[in-house]
Structures are given as C-alpha cells and as structure tokens.
Amino acid sequence: MKKQILLLTIPVLLFSCSSDDDNQSQTIEMRINHFQNTGIAVGPVLTLLIQKGDDIGTDNWTKFYSNIEGFNYVPGTIYNLSVKAEPIDNPPADGSSIKYTLIEVKATQEVDNETLFDIDLKINGENFVTTDTGLELLNQINIDCNNLCDELETILQNQDFVVGTFKRVSNNEIQLMELE
Q1: Sign of CA dihedral 73, 76, 81, 83
Q2: Positive or negative, the Cα torsion across 12, 13, 18, 24?
Q3: For the chain, which residues score pLDDT lower than 50?
Q4: Are residues 134 and 100 in the same domain?
Q5: What are phi and psi for residue 132, nearest 5 degrees?
Q6: What is the pTM of this model?
C-alpha cells in the first residue's frame, strides 16, 4: 500500500514542479518604434509600437498596450531593449497578464524629424483627435494640421477609418502631412 501511495505521489510532484517552471519570468528582446500610435483598450489610448523575436528589423510593428516598468520612452528614438516578462497571478479583467520590466537599453537610434510616419486618427468610428486645447492626439500630443485642417475635420466626420501621415515637430507636437 505504501508503494502505491508513493507511486501516485511522484507524478503529482513532477507535474507540480513543471507547472512552476511555466510560471517563471523570461527575458525577451524588444524594439520600440520612434512614434506612438493609437488603439482601443478599455477606452482610447496611445500605444507603443514594438517588434519582438523574428519581427525585429522588419517592417512589422505591433501595438503594445502594456507598460514597461523602468522604461522612459522619448519620441524620436528607436530603442532596442532587453525586458523581463513575468506572469501576473490573477490579473485585472482589463489588464495584461504579463508584467514587463526593463533590464537594459541595449541601443538607441535617433530618427530625423523629417521622417514620415502614419498614425490611426479614427478606428471603427472611435476618434482619437481631441479639441480641448487645440487639435491634439488624445489630449497628449499637439497636432499642427498644416494646410489640411478643413479636410481633417471633414474626413473625421464622414469616415470610420482615418490615417494621417505625420512628421515630428518636437517631442509633443506632430505636423499633419497627408490624410488617407
């Protein structure tokens, strides 16, 4: 009888150890783009654009809805990071199940202010252009609408999806160059 209990206990111990391994943190390499885009989480938000794994160095960027603890993002810079990703026990319903913590900034690359980039200004009818204190992207980044102010207003009223092509004026101001 003791042998049978021991034989039944060993697999349970083995499985419980392997499940602990599944819940451990891992180090990942991540690349952060030089501008933020918009997205819809619980509400409209600004997101980082990232590359991980095989996507690093390609044209494939993914919207990143989490924070990276210890990382201070500055627009106009592409970052190569080493990040610790660890599972969160019982994450909030509207939050990430993974906590990201900066281990090291491996490299940075400044991007010229004349470099053009696209930002989603409206997705599925959700408008990210605010007008509380002039034109802004979610009350956080000033928008110089250049000579496209009337066109921007019209297209935001009449279309469900709007993309703007911008260049950077400063860390908290972008200039609209074109609308899609």
Answers
A1: positive
A2: positive
A3: 1-21
A4: no
A5: -60, -45
A6: 0.83
